[in-house]
Amino acid sequence: MALDCGQVTVLGAGSWGTALACHLAGDERTVKLWARRTELIEEINTCRENKRYLPGIFLPASIQVTVDLEQALAGAEVVVFSVPSHTFRAVLRKALPFIPAGALIVNTAKGIEENSMQRLSEVFISEAGPARAKNYAVLSGPSHAEEVALKMPTAVVVASASQHTAVLAQDLFMRENLRVYTNPDIIGVELGGALKNVIALGTGIVDGLSGSDNAKAALMTRGLTEITRLGMAMHANPLTFAGLAGLGDLIVTCTSRHSRNRRAGIAIGRGKTLQQALDEVNMVVEGVRTTRAAHKLSATWGVEMPITEQMYQVLFHNLPPRAAVNNLMTRGKTREVEELALAKIKW
Ligand SMILES: NC(=O)c1ccc[n+]([C@@H]2O[C@H](COP(=O)([O-])OP(=O)(O)OC[C@H]3O[C@@H](n4cnc5c(N)ncnc54)[C@H](O)[C@@H]3O)[C@@H](O)[C@H]2O)c1
Ligand SMILES: O=P(O)(O)OC[C@H](O)CO
């Protein structure tokens, strides 16, 4: 049952913002879509299509596109952020003066701010103040825009410091084709959504190198272990990583042809430089910045993250991918479940 609210404003007219605007349109409400580029407005107004970011999807007339942030946000009861995570602080800062008090804010970006190492809810609080945290939710999980736009069955999760806000966001997005769960663990949901991109770059590299299914399964499983280990140090609920924002998104991003992170990894595995891979994908590949942030977080929290370490060396220090694989395979022997004590399983 969709939330009965008036105007929704979506900030960011890339693949995800456009797909979510389409998803939310059509319930007798106005959806305003804020885009950065004027050319996109002309294209959408004439063709009702976002050809670069979501080709082949019809945008209903109830979606109004604008480049004017003040106009986009006037009267908004819900504001959905769908800008790349590294631009979130700047866009938020510009938007805040125009966001009506009490509006529900849903962030759909997946990343960790590189310099501050802040999760995006922390970025939000640092800009908007703690009083607004109760209106803030994050939406995450395995949800490629191309499939949501085609109404393919999808399940996602919303997390918020406030249960009331999480349920409002759940009601807003829930449809026959989109099942929405709530989770109080905002730390885990944010970390899962951001860190899976590092692993997806890695499985993409394996696809580019050899296509070994065994190696990809090992990377996904051990990747999830190190994400969970960092998450636990940062006070997330370990079970969140077994859910949609953890395992679910890891699976889709590591295996889908739609994944930009995986595609960038494939190009690197085939011998392209990082820059050549990014140029080839030509859309946001958040795993690159997230690898730097995760590398710093691993040092800050004193958590061992061997896959992240090797990805960091490949992306930023020209370590050949085959050498990275070899480094991972020849590490000292260890136990599978390091947190044995926590799991209360003892020999
Ligand atoms: N595409 C998906 O399937 C999907 C699914 C779930 C979550 N997300 C998340 O949504 C966020 C947006 O991803 P996307 O796939 O829509 O990206 P995209 O590459 O398709 O589009 C990025 C959009 O952001 C705009 N942009 C770039 N820099 C900007 C800036 N400084 N200010 C304002 N706008 C700027 C671009 O013009 C473009 O419209 C990311 O954090 C991503 O992880 C994406
Ligand atoms: O295309 P990717 O690799 O950035 O992944 C997009 C979404 O995070 C999938 O849920």
UniProtKB/TrEMBL annotation:
Sn-glycerol 3-phosphate binds at K110, G141, S143, K196, D249, S259, R260, N261. It is an enzyme of class 1 (oxidoreductase). Pathway: Membrane lipid metabolism; glycerophospholipid metabolism. Coiled coil: none annotated. Its main location: cytoplasm. Its EC number is 1.1.1.94. NAD(+) binds at G12, A13, G14, S15, W16, G17, A145, R260. NADPH binds at S15, W16, R36, R37, Y53, K110, A145, R260, V284, E286. Belongs to the NAD-dependent glycerol-3-phosphate dehydrogenase family. Catalyzes the reduction of the glycolytic intermediate dihydroxyacetone phosphate (DHAP) to sn-glycerol 3-phosphate (G3P), the key precursor for phospholipid synthesis. This is Glycerol-3-phosphate dehydrogenase [NAD(P)+]. It comes from Desulfallas thermosapovorans DSM 6562. The gene is gpsA.
